[in-house]
Amino acid sequence: MIRVGIGYDSHRFVAGRPLILAGQTIPHTHGLAGHSDADAVAHAVTDAILGASAAGDIGTLFPDTDEAWRNADSMRLLARATEAVAARGCRVRQVDITIIIERPKIGPHRAAMAAALATVLGIGSGDVGIKAKTNEGMGFIGRGEGIAVMAVATVEG
Ligand code: MG
Fold first, then answer.
1. Fewer Cβ in 10 A, N or C end of the chain?
2. How far is the CA of 31 from the centre of ligand 1 (A)?
3. Rounded distance, CA 96 to CA 45, Å?
């Protein structure tokens, strides 16, 4: 059976933190606020694969009240979520991601992000779609206050 999961995440920009997306540090004036490293791409993908296998959600598996996850590398959380999916007899097949961000440009980092996600998920780089959109200047994303990420995953099992 092929199962589909959806994930969404948003984080606020703050000064003084690195911008980390899919485990890649991306040069920018601001990073993202959060209990972990605030990697919104990793978080959205985590929820997508957990959702596809009905294995809960990121907040349940890695609560932000738990000091163990403070400044955590979210790609490691994604690895643990991948294990939770496997424990339910499921296997990730493919993910597709849309990053909604006014700046910086994602294109120069797309290949590295896809490769990193593919490694953690145990799939090929060609099974990781990454697209970036601006919000045309509208709303909190348009004002550069933060970003949002949507992800869809297919899981077999
Ligand atoms: Mg998050």
1. N
2. 13
3. 8
Structure token pair of residue 80:
């643990």
Helix or strand or coil: residue 123?
coil
CA of 40 to the centre of ligand 1 (A): 5
**pLDDT tens by residue, 104-142:** 999 999 999 999 999 999 999 999 999 999 999 999 999
How many angstroms separate the CA atoms of 47 and 89, rounded? 17
Which regions of the chain does DSSP assign to beta strands (E)?
Answer: 2-14, 19-21, 24-26, 31-32, 91-100, 128-133, 146-156
Q: How far is the CA of 96 from the centre of ligand 1 (A)?
A: 17
How far does residue 95's CA lie from ligand 1's centre (Å)?
A: 17
3-state secondary structure at position 98: strand
